[in-house]
Amino acid sequence: MRILNLDAAPTDPIERIMWLTGVKEKALAELDEAFRVAYYKARLERRFDAAIAAGPYAKKRALAMTRAENNRRGRAIRWNDGIDATSTAYDAS
User: Fold this and answer.
1) Distance CA 5, CA 83 (A)
2) Are residues 48 and 88 in contact, defined by beta-carbon separation less than 8 angstroms?
3) Is the CB of residue 66 less than 8 Å from the CB of residue 43?
4) Is the pTM of this model over 0.90?
5) Which range marks the domain in which residue 59 is found?
6) What is the pLDDT along the chain (93 residues), one digit of tens a residue?
7) Which of 4, 12, 33, 93 is the most buried (most CB within 10 A)?
8) Is 49 inside any structural domain?
9) Which DSSP string corresponds to 8-52?
10) Is 52 a member of any domain?
11) Count of structural domains within the chain
12) Distance from the first to the final alpha carbon of the chain
């Protein structure tokens, strides 16, 4: 079963490439948003190490995603205040 339905793609090869590029950019943007929220929630649940091990992103990128999601939510969480202090994935000092 295919995830994407590409029936609406243009038949001209150049137009198709341009169209597919737009689809790829949109899909990646949606995936990044979903990963950002997932890493954020994993960090809140003190499961950040496991999330890094299971996910496709390195520690630095995953931390950036959690900061971005925290900023989007109005900086509700202060990460260096003891939340997830047992994690070895980042410096909590």
Assistant:
1) 42
2) no
3) yes
4) no
5) 13-72
6) 888 888 889 999 999 999 999 999 999 999 999 999 999 999 999 899 999 999 999 988 999 899 889 888 888 777 764 444 444 444 433
7) 33
8) yes
9) TS-SSHHHHHHHHHHHHHHHHHHHHHHHHHHHHHHHHTT-HHHHH
10) yes
11) 1
12) 47
